[in-house]
Request: fold
Amino acid sequence: MTDLAAVKRALTAQRIETPSWAYANSGTRFKVFTQPGVPRNPEEKIADAATVHQFTGVAPVVALHIPWDKVDDYAALGAYARDLGVEIGAINTNVFQDDDYKLGSVTNPDAGIRRKATDHLLEAIDIMGRTGSRDLKLWFSDGINYPGQDDLRNRQDRLAAALREAYDRLTGNQRMLLEYKLFEPAFYATDVPDWGTSYAHCLELGERATVCIDTGHHAPSTNIEFIVAFLLRQKKLGAFDFNSRFYADDDLMVGAADPFQLFRIMYEIVRGGALDPAYGIAFMLDQCHNIERKIPAIIRSIMNVQEATAKALLVDRDTLTAAQQAGDVLEANAVFMDAYNTDVRPLLAEVRTDAGLDPDPIAAYRRSGHDEKIIAERVGGTQAGWGA
Reply:
């Protein structure tokens, strides 16, 4: 039988990281849709993250993206976040928007451009030290579009050299998270296309290097929960970028396309003992809220993760194990489906009430008038958007 008290404790302790860029204007590659009241600077992004934490109680960390969140005084930015009740999470690098990176960043055949890109990684580590961040998040769009365009082996050597230089700069509890992506804009060959490539580089680097799984960065029908189970077994899973996909890297709200997949992923997290924040996995939302209001969309995303987690915690593992060992295929699957089909919203309402929160965070946010307040106050200046 499932220990409901233990389930409640686990849900209360859960932590979800939100990204600064999700509070800004975003859109498709064809159009960025603006909204009134979106942040105009990093401080207002952090303030929005603090608002989300206020209503959910489980989002005390906000990730930054450099140079989108560039400021003169990062120590002051970290202090500002702490004053609002949140901490600075992962520092995300950007080596994909400069014209210099047309042929790649750290894998570019031009040594000068590789130096520029690697220096940016080192700059991000310096920012980590000044903000109190633990995680350096790396994603590379590097790759080639045509056979023969560049040497595939040489590009891996260049990548390894840059990763090593950044890795050796890490100190204290700092660590490296290496993300991957199947394609785009490198359509023929991407230099870090999958979890196996990321894992191999992290294994070569050392224990401070771990894989970041973006749930949208896979080929259709990929069994993501298998990847989770494998990397947990190897102690090489460091973070998630949660989102949903219908076609490719859509970056829609987590759980929107396939909530059952999210449940299966969270079950492997629970089964591996990795839900506890002390384990070290950063559960971050990486989403583009193109047409919906930013703050309530992020609150809803957090609620989706909480619901999937609650269902994963309700799996009767003793009964499941017995069915698995007996080879009872239908019973094992039924145990899984019973947990997934459970309505956990009343349970989560109890958890929030016990924590002194409103049982319905979305309704509470709407009643608060906060949306109207930021729309009225954030007039003038330049709105932050994708790439700014």
